[in-house]
Amino acid sequence: MNPSKLFSRLQELRKQIQYHNYRYYVLNDPIISDYEYDQLYAELVAIEQEHPEWITPDSPTQRVGGLVAERFEKVQHPVPILSLSNAFTKAEVQEWFERIAKLDERVREADFIVEPKIDGLTVVLHYQDGVFQRGATRGDGMVGEDVTANLRTIKALPLKIPVSAQNTIKVPTSLVVRGEVFITMQDFEQLNRRLEEMGEKTYLNPRNTASGSLRQLDPRITATRPLTLLTYDIVSMEGEPPKTQSELLEMLYDFGFPVVENRYCANLNEVFEAYDNFLRRRDELGYEADGVVIKLNDIVLAQQLGVVGKDPRGAIAFKYPAREVSTKLLSIGVNVGRTGVLTPYAILSPVEIGGVIVKQATLHNFDFIAQKDIRIGDVVLIKRAGDVIPYVIGPIIEQRDGDEQVFVPPKNCPVCDQPVEHLEGEVAWYCVNAACPAQVVRNIEHFVSRSAMDIVGVGINLVEQFVQAGLLSDAADLYRLNREDLLQLEGFAEKKAENVLQAIASSKKQSLARLIIGLGIRGVGEVVAADLAQRFKSLDALMSATLEELQSIEGIGPNTAQAIVDWFRQPRNRELLAKLRSAGVWPVEEEIKQDEIKQVFAGKTFVVTGGLQRFTREEVKEFIEKRGGRVTESVSKKTDYVLVGQNPGSKLEKARALNIPVLDEAQFLEMAEK
Ligand code: IVH
Q: Cα(281) to centroid of ligand 1, in Å?
């Protein structure tokens, strides 16, 4: 291709990639597959490699770059980055309203915008001619820290605006936007699970994680953290600024920023309704919100009302009831996980937090207990945020009476009594006895679980019962169970025994990927297992894979590759494999040609909500895509079907409101078989 054609192709690719990023990270509504996206990206990388002189900072390939910094430079904010005063009751909000109405009568007729108050970190984002130049933390409100390189790694943050290729909106030459960087609950828990499996320190809560990640000196580390962004304010701009908060949010949206959810309220009563509504949906937002922000819609009026200290008069934070309480730490228990990791947990004097009775809370790891000097008998502060498991924040030292006892981590496994070990460089302590009953139970429990072999009706209680009765020493023993074995157990009659045996037998037909998940290799979850099954097609091939072969698969790093090789070397695991093979549990991935699958969903768009029986989210997506359909995140008029599992979210309501056909799993499978 001649240089000028190649250059236009490069520009076209950048535009397209930017747009697809936006569809994916901002709108949650991608319109191309990951594969197609990767192709575009690879093509751009290739052109830039050929012509490094064409690389510009706004190229989507330049999100992770820059050097490890020694410290952050200071950035002067264009105007003070203000804070908010707080209200805790409706009466206090009413008082605020009266106060400002006295200052300006127009307030009595005013309308409002109500937004969730995201519990993250304020960032101030500078754009020049639509290109992201610089981003800073709030700091003291006047001067913040330059965290540009880290912010660039956040895919929801537009490097160039307007984002949409079709968008012809004019962007101000200079624009400074304020938003909040945070981590969703789901990403937080997933990150912690990953860290725990690798024996690394887990994080305390989403906010600390976001804060630590944003203030990393090495942007490559930040890039591995699931940070995301929502914006809610324009700090300054050239040209005519919006007159109302609704116009402002709309403007941000049109530029391509991810914008905070919001409600228009015509009066204070509607504000209270919006508060109640957000509070009810607190756990559904996906991120931690500690209240709502009530803003006068009229920005000019709000500015005229002025500021008290650092708090503008025209807005107020209406906080939710705290989800922190104190209670007595009765004792500390220790769990043994599937990989043998020992994790301490707090046994508490039962206490209510936000309508839930809490009796236990996580204590992360033994280092945490020592660092925080948490003692048995202490009164401790507990937090329950969203769906995150409650955790101990720390002791309230002032309430000590001297009877508290320092906790000594066990030297032996609390279950099998074998000595525990500590790996160099890791915080975790392990029980390394693979025959430890706790590990055996957890391993089998993992094997039968929904994301692995999905043996319906066999849960933790049955697994424990089988192990205790001496019927199972590993997962392969499941396939040796017979009617007589089961009938001698408490609680088993003909029917139940038959059902259990039936469920076990039919799991023999599960896919190779599911069996690989079921093996419980460190670092091998759904995504890696699917890649391994795709690449190796059978356990025979996977067993003899070398480190190099494994590492050549994208997404498999040196640690996971090593863990896979080590797993297959262990005599105990080899024995398990031999037993599985002789039981006939030895799936082989068959190449099904794409054109042999009937394209029953051709051109149809699905949204999935709630938990499905037969599929994980990834699997159902793949299943639909293989049949010509596509899956998007949010329900809109363009959605053809909403597939509903257990505990569906608000998407179901939305589908009903828009009159979109709703399918349950059985109806969906029936459609697929046509
Ligand atoms: S408006 C003058 N809106 O809450 C404008 N702030 O205590 C003041 N925050 O530091 C900010 N979500 O980091 C605003 N929807 C939202 C917000 C929000 C979270 C944070 C912000 C601020 C703190 C105020």
A: 19
pLDDT at 451: 84
Radius of gyration of the chain (CA): 28
* Residue 384 vs residues 2, 276, 322, 440: alpha-carbon distances, Å: 60, 19, 9, 31
Q: Which of these, 334, 337, 333, 370, lies nearest to 348 by C-alpha position? A: 333
Q: Considering only CA atoms, which residue is closest to atom 7 of ligand 1? A: 84
Q: Are residues 452 and 563 in the same domain?
A: yes
| 118 touches ligand 1 (CB under 6 Å) | yes
**Do 138 and 281 reside in the same domain of the chain?**
yes
Which CATH number covers residue 345?
2.40.50.140
Spacing, Cα 618 to ligand 1 middle (Å): 35
Is 117 among the residues known to form the active site?
yes
| Greatest Cα pair distance in the chain | 84
Whether residue 504 is predicted with pLDDT greater than 90 in this model: the reply is: yes
Question: Is the CB of 288 within 6 Å of ligand 1?
Answer: no
**Stretch among 77-81, 135-139, 198-202 having the lowest mean pLDDT:** 198-202
Lowest mean pLDDT among 54-68, 287-301, 406-420, 503-517: 54-68
Domain range holding 473? 440-582
pLDDT band for position 65 (cuts 50, 70, 90): low
- Are residues 549 and 654 part of one domain? no
Percent of the chain with pLDDT over 90: 65
CA nearest to 457, candidates 490, 492, 489, 504? 504
Query: How far is it, in rounded angstroms, from Cα 254 to Cα 649?
Result: 27
Burial of 418 (0-12, 13-18, 19+ CB in 10 A): middle
Question: In angstroms, how far is the first alpha carbon of the chain from the final one?
Answer: 46
119 and 217 share one domain: yes
**314 CA distance to ligand 1 middle (Å):** 13
Residues 575 and 468 in one domain: yes
CATH number reported for the structural domain that contains residue 548 in this entry: 1.10.150.20
DSSP label at residue 674: -
- What confidence score (pLDDT) does residue 573 get? 93
C-alpha span between 231 and 253 (Å, rounded): 9
Q: Are residues 394 and 484 in the same domain?
A: no
For the Cβ of 83 lying below 6 angstroms from any atom of ligand 1, the answer is: yes
Number of domains, the chain: 5
151 & 264 share domain: yes
- Name the residue of 82, 121, 177, 180 whose CB sits within 8 Å of the most ligand 1 atoms, as the mutation to test its pocket: 180
Please identify, among 281, 298, 319, the residue that sits at the C-terminal boundary of a domain.
Answer: 319
Question: Cβ(305) to ligand 1 under 6 A?
Answer: no
Q: Looking at per-residue confidence, does 43 or 648 come out higher?
A: 43
By most ligand atoms within 8 Å of CB, the mutation choice from 122, 234, 236, 259 for ligand 1 is 122
- What pLDDT is attached to residue 210? 93
C-beta of 115 in contact with ligand 1 (< 6 A): yes
- For residue 311, what are its two tokens? 């708090």
Of 176, 178, 293, 294, which is best to mutate to test ligand 1, by the most ligand atoms within 8 angstroms of its C-beta?
Answer: 293
Q: What is the CATH number of the domain that holds 163?
A: 3.30.470.30
Q: Are 163 and 132 in a shared domain?
A: yes
